[in-house]
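Ticket reopened. Same input as before:
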Amino acid sequence: MSEAQAGALAHHFADLEQQREASALGMWVFLVTELLFFGGLFGIYCVYRHSYYEAFSAGSHHLSWRLGFINTLVLIGSSFTMAMAVYSAATGRRARIVLFLVLTILLGSTFLGVKVVEYAEKIGPCLGDGPHTGCLLPGPRFDGEVLHLEGERAREAQIYFSLYFGMTGLHATHMIIGIPILAIIARMAYRGRFRPEWHTPVELVGLYWHFVDIVWIFLFPLLYLIGHH
Amino acid sequence: MTTPEAALPKTHYLNADYGWKSWLFTTDHKRIAILYLVSITFMFFLGGAYAVVIRLNLLEPTGSLVSAETYNKLFTAHGVIMIFFFLIPSIPATLGNFLIPLMIGAKDLAFPRLNLLSWYVYIVGAVFTLYALVAGGLDTGWTFYTPYSTVFANTNVIAAGVGIFIAGFSSILTGLNFIVTIHKMRAPGLTWFRLPLFVWAHYATSIIQVLGTPVIAITLLLVTLERAFHFGFFDPNRGGDPVLFQHLFWFYSHPAVYIMILPSMGVISELVTCFSRKRVFGYNFIAMSSLAIAGLGFLVWAHHMFVAGISVYAAMIFSALSFLVAIPSAIKVFNWTATLFRGSVSWQTPMLYAFGFIGLFTIGGLTGLFLATLGIDVHVTDTYFVIAHFHYIMVGGAIMGYLGGLHFWWPKMTGRLYPEWWARVSAVVVFLGFNLTFLPQFILGYLGMPRRYHAYPPEFQVLNVMSSAGASILGVGYLIPMVYLAWSMRYGKVAPANPWPATGLEWQTTSPPPTENFPRTPVVHEEVYDYSAPPKEAALV
Amino acid sequence: MSRSHVVSWPSYLGVFLILAALTAATVWAAGQDFGSFNTLVALTIAVVKATLVVLYFMHLRYSPRLTILVVFTGFVWLAILILLTMSDYLSRGWSIVTR
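Engineering reply: fixed in the latest deploy. New output:
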């Protein structure tokens, strides 16, 4: 089988190996930009956790660590199925690529479903008229009393919840972008587009997905487990 | 040098295909470079137009040409456009895009479609930002300081923030493409230390683009979220710290100035060696100093914040680091000078710009050391001293390098020679106009005239009038090349493959190059700046 | 990523099980009082988990050195951002030295 036949050798590359190495390097460089992108939020987190530890602790206690724990296992599980999808592509098992990609999508969607539940619980009370008890969206309707905080500490807790929504929201956005891409790759796999010599799209989406998992690995303890002792 | 009458190659990248689709859907890096060239030229003159109104307003101490509010919008627009939509993309997206594959003997960049995407992303960002500037304007300064931008401003902060956020991705994609290309697509025999210094400079620039731009992206995103959803990270009334915004903003925006100057330095290395007919002195030092600038440049950002309320101990650390970062730049200037020494110097237009760069960049750089000194900075921060400092580097440095490079590679890009005497005259006009505009500003700043004010004390008027006069001369100096460069594309003398002649792979293919750059992949056997050997002929009939 | 090396699938399962166990450990450790080391313990476990994902799921262990350099550089830069910014906040309370 000629190089060109082996699948999508672009004209400006000498061979498939060069193309694959370039694609992989490109994806890793992109992930570094994502690391710095999320990193800004982690930097803000560090600054405010240092200054507002009590309020952060109170806010963190209000989150459901059980849901966070389950979600972490779900997401790590989806990383496992994603790795298995890449493995299946490398070993030429077409049906299994599709299976594992679909499982990844299902687990990722489960994660997002749990997040919707968590968000609804915090944002729901903010809507409509009425006392807005339990509203945890930063802004004029924020209810510090449900955290047993008032005045200055309540303001600091708003910073905590800004970070909670900002960081998990950005993370969820990355998953919302990733899932359709997984679906597209799954469709390509279903149509037999991949073979052991060339399955770069599966590898690249895998790298992206694992990165999203790693961000959550840090978010879980930093947001859900502050001051639990 | 007597050469037989040059002829354009029969097929090259410009005539390989016709029609708007062949341009808007191209993946040829050379065509994308031209797309960028047109876009950034437009943005340059737009940003310049704002500068014209600023300088007109500053002719009178009362500054009554425009209101104070309008003046705020003028300098904001000037800064935003010039920095994000002209300087940052300028050399990398035009000369870099065009030349890097040629210089390394490749057929294209690693990701041609991402390259085209980066241009579209730039355009979308520009449209958002221009909308913001047109629909009421923006008055926060290009620095978007909080809490004014997040809480109090009544102008189009969100639209502009989104526009710059989007444009940032254009920068990231370009940097990513260059890094992978330079690592993976060099021709056989082209080791790292045989690369042109232009390539080293762009490699270092790309590292900064990739590591720094995401941080301003998240920062601007948070400013828009804060404005829209009351987040409060940067608002004291909500428990936030405005200085934290500044930390995050300058973490990118300081390295950004190295994005703006490093490619220009790469150009200067190429010009100085060619027009002294001499191998560049200290190649390794210049190459390594580019990386050093990229690295050290990330460690100095809080020198923009000395009076903002940071701890004095942090200020001392950042001051010391800021002194360090001047060293690699100085090394470059020493090496360029040493290259000129005992070289056979000729005074073509690119060399005039290179000389202008070396002198003006040195002044700009040295005044940076004054600003890095805590005691002096307290006195001159937020005055015209700072404005003069960065314009010496950005205009006297970066833009002169850009113009020098544009002229040097113009024959390669268009197959035509520009008219040399007109070009030399405008280079001199630019140099004189520039100094008349900005030298008085050092004095004004030292005397205490603050920046970003539409009016000033009457005793400063003479210097301001000098500055505005200089600006009009500078403007003329920039307009003349637009005319003759455009003219040359149709009526200029046809250029040979290597008119200067210069070393480097890009000169060993036709002017203009064919779409695939080289008929056969070149193989490299020697160092890049061997000016002792006779010039190579183009390897293509 | 290495072309020649395909990790065996039981390795993936093994890494997943370790990650799950470490997640449980994270929760357990949060309930313990390690004094001023609390944050360090939580972060250390997270770093170990992230390292396992990067090395095995993302194949960094079998990748060219350039890739490893790229990843390393990313983390170093993140550290620069956080540490140098924190140096300002941590030293704000220090008294000015006067003589």
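Helices of chain C lie at 9-31, 38-57, 65-91. Chain C touches chain B through 15 residues (CB under 8 Å). Please confirm and we'll close it.
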